[in-house]
Structures are given as C-alpha cells and as structure tokens.
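Internal tracking record. Fields below are filled automatically when a chain is submitted to the structure queue. Please do not edit lines marked as system-generated. If the sequence contains nonstandard residues, flag them in the REMARKS field before resubmitting.
Queue: standard
Priority: normal
Entity type: single polypeptide chain
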Amino acid sequence: MMQTYQYYEPGPQDDGQNQYNRAYKPEKKKGGSKLLRTIALAIVFGLIAGLTFTGVNFAGSKLLGSSEKTETTTTVQTASADKEDATTEELLNTATSSSSANVADIVDNAMPSIVSITSMSIQEVQSFFGMQQQEAKSAGSGIILGENDDELLIATNNHVVAGSEKLTVTFTDEASVSAAVKGADSQLDLAVVAVKKSDIPEETMKVIKVASMGDSSSLRVGDTAIAIGNALGYGQSVTTGIISATERSIDNVSGKYIQTDAAINPGNSGGALLNAKGEIIGINSAKIQDTSVEGMGYAIPISDAKEILQTLMNKQTREQVAEGERGYLGITGRTVDEVSAQMYDLPVGVYVSAIEKGGAAAKAGIQEGMIITTFDDTTLDGMDSLASLLKTYKAGETVKVKVQVPNQKNKYHEEELEVTLGKAN
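SYSTEM-GENERATED OUTPUT FOLLOWS
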C-alpha cells in the first residue's frame, strides 16, 4: 500500500542541528475509516428505505388493491425498451410483414364472394370481303350480392355483359356455370347477373358466400384500397393502393367515381374494391382508363349503386328466346352515347331515324326524331343494348318504353308509351 507523506516545518524544540532529521513523516491514512463509515451508513439507509418502501406498498395494496400494477408497468417498460433496442430496418420489416398479412387475410375472406365472368358475343368486323360477323370472347368480374329462392345474384358492369350471346360465371373453386342478365343500367354501367342454384355444384355452394357491403360515403383520401378481379382474363388477382380521390367526375361518363392508384385493368371490370375491413366500397370499372397516365383507376361507389342494384335484382330474369319467336320493334335507330350526347346536347339512348309502317313502334306512337331511353325499365346507351334486350322478349309481349320527344326548339320532354312487340317478317 502506498504511503502518503507530509512535509513538517521545524518545531520550537528542534535544535537546528538535525535538519536532515526533519524528515518526511508518514501520515496516518484516514480515508479507510471514512470509507467504512460511509458504507455502514449506506447499508443502514438502504435497510431503512427498503422497510419504508415495503411498508408504503403494503399499505397501498391494502387500501387500493393495486399490488399487480407494478408488474403491468414493468411489462410495458420492457416492451418499450425492446422497441428502442430494435433497428429501424427491423421495425420497418415488422410493419411490412404485418401489413402484408392483413391484406392476405382480407383477400382470403373476400375471394369466395368474387367471380369471373366470360362473355361470348357476335361482332361485325371489316374484312376483305366486306362486313362479316364473328364470335368474340371477353372477360370480366362480378361480386356475389345476394340470392333468392332459385338464384344467386351477382353485380357487375353493364359493359361486361352487354350484347352477350352466352355468359359463363366461374367461382373461386374454378367451377363454371351458365348465367343470364337479370337487369342492367347502361348509363351507370351496372348490371346484375343471375345463376340458377340448381346449376351450382353442392361443393361450390359450401365455399362461396355473399359479399359484405361497406359505406363508400365515409371514405377519406388516403384510406386503404384493395382491388380483386379477373385481370386480362387470367383468373382472380389482387392489387393494393389507396383512395386517391372521391366524388370524381369524368368527361363523357355519368355519375361520380372513386379514384384509386390500385391497378385496375381490363378484366377487372365488375370486380370488387375493398376497404381495410374487407368490405365492398366500389365496383371497379376498367372502361374508364387512359393509356397516357398511370395509377388512376376508377370504381363506382357502392353507396351510390345499392339502390339501382336492388332494383335490378328484383327484375324478372330473362333468357334468350328462339330467333323465330323474338319480339320485333320495327325501327331503324342510331346510337347516342355519352360523347354524342354532350356534343349535340341530346339525351343518351337510341335515336329513331326511321319507322316501319304498321310496325309495333308506329302503333305505339313512336315517331322519327324521338330518342328511346329505357326499355322495360332498363336504360339504353345505344342500339347494341336495345338489340340485346329484344333477344329476351317474345312477340306479343307488351312492354313500357320511355322516349324523349323533341319540340320546335329542339328541347326534349319525356313520355312513357306501351309497345306490344311484333314479329319479324
């Protein structure tokens, strides 16, 4: 142990002769005793504080019954400490993994409510030999909305089923069955397709389910958006994004739309746009797209579509009638679509350019220059939709038709007429 020395000045009894004996005398070390006293005091203080703290806790637990709160606090602090120790990369990876898992769970729950729709139609195409007819196949999607005693009812876009000669619905288990258009609103691009329950395999009925409806009126920009549909006809696929805008108006298109950056491609039409709860908030429409931009998909808000879809679901399901038995209207018409309507300030529908004398239309009071807008409560967006409807009506049936009648100033007012369909000669 190192000794500490202190220099001493000569004292009064020093004779001065032994100056070199005025040596450095070792100082008695006092630090050790101080240290012992300090340790002893610390031990005593610790014992007193511990007893006091125990007494306070005991009294508090007796009065408040809170002896378990200390453990809860410790657990929270430990969890916080773990988060502080984690790296930013670890936290991001955890958040990403959790988000992906949530989307996967939503999709697993929603997929049994989504179907693929295949439409076969006849189209006229220009060839070397002139205009020829050929069969065309297109793909779309649908959402199971409900059922009645005999049918499963599926919502989709009108443009998915318009002009169809044959419809096929494919469910989540790949089972495919024939379907028929129950009703359509061409202006709002909505339709309801019906499938006979008797045609659906029992195993399929066990795995499919009716979709859960959400509230699109409460959407906020930035909310999660998940789109499911039969993109490009390859089968169901999923894209994710956010709500980019609400109440969006689009040139030459009726209604207001939800805008999302979730990819919506051909084949997604009629499919589901979901929120973070897995509820349907919109019906996707790939009809509204522009090749010059990216990240701008559109969907019909489900809150706006509900009432129309309910009306269509209650209509009588009509299947195609044999060609020789089909009803005949007796007009020559031209399509007035959204673009033409805005350009020339006309109603959307079928412009009557000629009337067959003695035909069904003439007998009902339909005249040249009128525009037929609805046929048996189904809105029309042109000749294709009217021709498609007439294939499901027999000659002799009476239907209500709404027409827009022009006046001298080329303004229109609406009239409703009853037409008894004739038979083609």
